[in-house]
C-alpha cells in the first residue's frame, strides 16, 4: 500500500537512498535516453510541431477558463447517451463511489486499464479493503502489482526493472494472482510478453466489471478516449458488462475537432509513435455492443484549488505523456519512487503539491526536486512552464504555504520566520541598487578567492554538501570589459 504523504520521507532523503542503487540508475539511464531519442526523431517529422504545441496549450487554457461550462455539458451528454455521472470531491468520496458501484454488481473482481487517477486516489487499496480484487492489465502495471511494488514512471511504471528482474517476478508471484508463469521462463522479451498475455487472457474473459481512466473527455458528445499500445485497454473497455471510468475534471476538452491536435501531440511525446496502436472511444452505452452499464466518476481531489492559481493552473494542461520525466536529470538519477506520489518527475513536482498542499515534509520538498534547467518545458507538448511553477511553489513553501481564495485570485498568506533569508535578500537588493558597493564587493571577493572555503557554513551546508562551490574568477566581467575594451567600454 502506498505510504501516506505525511509519513513518507522528504524528497532529499528518499533521493539520497535511491541514487545509491547502481542497478536502478542504470535501468533509468538506459530507458530514458532511449525514449527521449525516439521522441526527438518523431517530433522532428512534423514541420508544424510548434504550432500544434501552441494549439494544445490554447485549447487547454480555454477549457480551464470555462471548466464549469464544459463539465456540465459533458455530464448532460454522457447522461443522454445512457451513462451515469458521479461527482467526487476528493479521494475518499471517489473510493466510496467506485466501491459501491462494484458491490452493486455482486462481483468481487475487476480488471483495470492503466489509470493515473486511480493510482492518485489509492483505489486498488480501497477496493482490497472492501474485499474486491483489482487486476492490473497493462504489462508494466502488472509487473508492479505482481512485485508488490509502486509505479515509478507515468508511461512505463516498471521502468526501474530490467528483464531479469521481471522474469523473477513472474516466476515467483504470477501463480498467486492467477495463471502461473510457464516452466523455464527466460528473460527474453517475447517470452515475458507471452507469459503476461496468457495470464491476462483468463482475466479478460471472466471479468464482469472493468475500471478505467481516460485521456480525454469530449464535452460536446460525452465521448471518452483511451489511447494505449498493448490492446489490454480495448479488452477491458469492450468485454465486461459494467465499465466504471474515473476521470480528473481537467481531462475534458470542448469538441471532437480538438482531438485532431492532441492525438498528434500525445503519441509522439509519449511513445514516439505517429499514432497509438489502440485508440478506443466510447459514448454511453449501446444495446448489444460493449458494456451494458457505464459510470463516469468525475474527480476533483484538489484540482479546483490548483485552478485558482493563475500560474500553477498550467499543470492542469498535462496530458500525461511523460516527456518531462525522460529529459529530467533529477528524475534520471533519483527515480520515480523518491517523489512519493503517483505523479513522479517534473510534472509530479508541480502537480502533487497543488493537489495535496504543502503541509507535509514530502510535499513541501517536491518543488525543490529540480535544477530548473528548463528541459522539461522545452519538451512539454502543451507548453507547461514547469520551472516557473516550481519557483511559484517554492515561494509558497517559504512563505508558509497557506493560500486564501479571494474572488478569482489565489493570495498567499505570509508566514512568520525566515528572518535570515529576508535579511539576505534585503542586503542583496541594497547592494544591486548601489553600483559602487557592488564593484567594491566584487573586487574584494576576487582578491580573496584563494581563502574561500570549499563548503558553506550554517544553513548553507545543505546546499554545498551535495554541490561544489563555483570558483570565483580573478576579475569581474566589468573589470574584464574595461581592461579589454578601454574606458569607452564602461558598463
Automatic annotation (TrEMBL):
Boundaries of every Lactate utilization protein B C-terminal domain copy: 392-483
Superkingdom of this protein's organism: Bacteria
Skewed-composition ranges (Basic and acidic residues): 464-482
Region annotated Disordered, chain positions: 456-491
This protein's UniProt keywords: 4Fe-4S, Electron transport, Iron, Iron-sulfur, Metal-binding, Repeat, Transport
Segments forming domain 4Fe-4S ferredoxin-type: 315-384
Residue ranges occupied by any LUD domain in the UniProt entry: 71-286
Record bears the keyword Iron-sulfur: yes
Pfam families recorded: Fer4_8 (PF13183), LUD_dom (PF02589), LutB_C (PF11870)
SUPFAM superfamilies xref list: 4Fe-4S ferredoxins, NagB/RpiA/CoA transferase-like
Single annotated GO MF: metal ion binding
Keyword Lipid metabolism applies: no
One biological process term in Gene Ontology: lactate metabolic process
InterPro entries associated with the record: 4Fe4S_Fe-S-bd (IPR017896), 4Fe4S_Fe_S_CS (IPR017900), FTHF_cligase-like_sf (IPR024185), Helical_ferredxn (IPR009051), LUD_dom (IPR003741), LutB/LldF (IPR004452), LutB_C (IPR024569), NagB/RpiA_transferase-like (IPR037171)
PANTHER family per UniProt: LACTATE UTILIZATION PROTEIN B (PTHR47153:SF2)
Protein name: L-lactate dehydrogenase complex protein LldF
Organism this protein belongs to: Streptomyces zagrosensis
UniProt lineage: Bacteria, Bacillati, Actinomycetota, Actinomycetes, Kitasatosporales
Amino acid at each position: 500500500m502506498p505510504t501516506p504523504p505525511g509519513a513518507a520521507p522528504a524528497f532529499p532523503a528518499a533521493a539520497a537512498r535511491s541514487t545509491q542503487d547502481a542497478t536502478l540508475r542504470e535501468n533509468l539511464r538506459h530507458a530514458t535516453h532511449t525514449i527521449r531519442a525516439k521522441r526527438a526523431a518523431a517530433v522532428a517529422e512534423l514541420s508544424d510541431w510548434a504550432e500544434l504545441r501552441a494549439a494544445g496549450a490554447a485549447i487547454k487554457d480555454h477549457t480551464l477558463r470555462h471548466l464549469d461550462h464544459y463539465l456540465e455539458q459533458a455530464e448532460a451528454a454522457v447522461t443522454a447517451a445512457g451513462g451515469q455521472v458521479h461527482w467526487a470531491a476528493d479521494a475518499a468520496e471517489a473510493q466510496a463511489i467506485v466501491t459501491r458501484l462494484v458491490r452493486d454488481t455482486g462481483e468481487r473482481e475487476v480488471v483495470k486499464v492503466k489509470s493515473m487517477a486511480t493510482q492518485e486516489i489509492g483505489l486498488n487499496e480501497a477496493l482490497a479493503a472492501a474485499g474486491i480484487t483489482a487486476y492490473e492489465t497493462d504489462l508494466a502495471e502488472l509487473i508492479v502489482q505482481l512485485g508488490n511494488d509502486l509505479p515509478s514512471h507515468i508511461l512505463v511504471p516498471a521502468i526501474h526493472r530490467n528483464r531479469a528482474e521481471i522474469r523473477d517476478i513472474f516466476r515467483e508471484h504470477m501463480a498467486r494472482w492467477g495463471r502461473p508463469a510457464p516452466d523455464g521462463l527466460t528473460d527474453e522479451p517475447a517470452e515475458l510478453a507471452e507469459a503476461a498475455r496468457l495470464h491476462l487472457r483468463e482475466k479478460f474473459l471472466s471479468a464482469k466489471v472493468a475500471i478505467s481512466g481516460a485521456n480525454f473527455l469530449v464535452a460536446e458528445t460525452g465521448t471518452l478516449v483511451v489511447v494505449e499500445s498493448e490492446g489490454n485497454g480495448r479488452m477491458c473497455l469492450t468485454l465486461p458488462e459494467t465499465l466504471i471510468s474515473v476521470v480528473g475534471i481537467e481531462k475534458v476538452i470542448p469538441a471532437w475537432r480538438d482531438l485532431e491536435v492532441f492525438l498528434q501531440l500525445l503519441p509522439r511525446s509519449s511513445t514516439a509513435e505517429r499514432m497509438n496502436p489502440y485508440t478506443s472511444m466510447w459514448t454511453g452505452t449501446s444495446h448489444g455492443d460493449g458494456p451494458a452499464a457505464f459510470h463516469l466518476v468525475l474527480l476533483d481531489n484538489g484540482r479546483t484549488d490548483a485552478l485558482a492559481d493563475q500560474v500553477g493552473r498550467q499543470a492542469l494542461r498535462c496530458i500525461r505523456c511523460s516527456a518531462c520525466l525522460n529529459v529530467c536529470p533529477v528524475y534520471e538519477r533519483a527515480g520515480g519512487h523518491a517523489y512519493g506520489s503517483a505523479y513522479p518527475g517534473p510534472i509530479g513536482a508541480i502537480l502533487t503539491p497543488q493537489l495535496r498542499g504543502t503541509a507535509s515534509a514530502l510535499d513541501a520538498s517536491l518543488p525543490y526536486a529540480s535544477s530548473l534547467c528548463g528541459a522539461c518545458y522545452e519538451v512539454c507538448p502543451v507548453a507547461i512552464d514547469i520551472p516557473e511553477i516550481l519557483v511559484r511553489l517554492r515561494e509558497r513553501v517559504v512563505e508558509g504555504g497557506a493560500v486564501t481564495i479571494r474572488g478569482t485570485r489565489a493570495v498567499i498568506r505570509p508566514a512568520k520566520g525566515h528572518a535570515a533569508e529576508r535579511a539576505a535578500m534585503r542586503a542583496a537588493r541594497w547592494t544591486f541598487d548601489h553600483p559602487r558597493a557592488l564593484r567594491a564587493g566584487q573586487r574584494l571577493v576576487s582578491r580573496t578567492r584563494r581563502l574561500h572555503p570549499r563548503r558553506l557554513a550554517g544553513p548553507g551546508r545543505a546546499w554545498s554538501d551535495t554541490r561544489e562551490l563555483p570558483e570565483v574568477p580573478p576579475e569581474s566581467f566589468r573589470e574584464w570589459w574595461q581592461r579589454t575594451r578601454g574606458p569607452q567600454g564602461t558598463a
